[in-house]
Amino acid sequence: MRYTFSKKDKLTKKEHFDALYISTRGVKSFPFSLRYVQMELDETGLSRQVAIVAPKRGLKHSVDRNRLKRQMRELYRLHKDKIMDSGVQEIWSLRYLGNRLNDYAFLEKGYLNLIEVYNEQRKKELDSTGSE
Predict the structure, then answer these.
(1) Alpha-carbon distance 22 to 35, whole Å?
(2) What is the mean pLDDT of each run of 10 residues along the chain (132 residues)?
(3) Alpha-carbon distances, residue 54 vs 31, 44, 95, 97 (angstroms)
(4) Contact by Cβ (8 Å): 97, 111
(5) The whole model's pTM is what?
(6) CA 56 to CA 70: how far, in whole Å?
(7) Could you tell me which of 3, 95, 10 has the C-alpha nearest to residue 48?
(8) Topology of domain 7-121, per CATH?
(9) Cis preceding linkage at 31, omega within 30
(10) Domain segments of the chain: what residues?
């Protein structure tokens, strides 16, 4: 697996954003929340597209938001091999819940916990659909 965050990985289509906020599932693990939905993507070899969100309400300065988004992209890029591949295409919205900047180690710990919770939820969802 290549540890990259390419242009194809970035969520850009308006209809995908709309679908993400209409019918979605999610998990939370401070300082992040993750919303996701299964959706057919244009790219065939791609398993997911991700939107990175750092709200203005918590971080007033754009410099802080940009730094945080860069760190979140790096977390996704470095740890995407730990994300369970369910065999379907998904779109994600990874959102920061905090109201101040934190050090990278704290963010990484929270992100890894979020991925663990996500993997458990996906296993339960796949088991429940497989048993029917």
Answers:
(1) 11
(2) 87 91 89 92 81 94 97 96 88 94 96 97 85 58
(3) 11, 29, 6, 8
(4) no
(5) 0.90
(6) 15
(7) 10
(8) Ribosomal Protein S5; domain 2 (3.30.230)
(9) yes
(10) 7-121
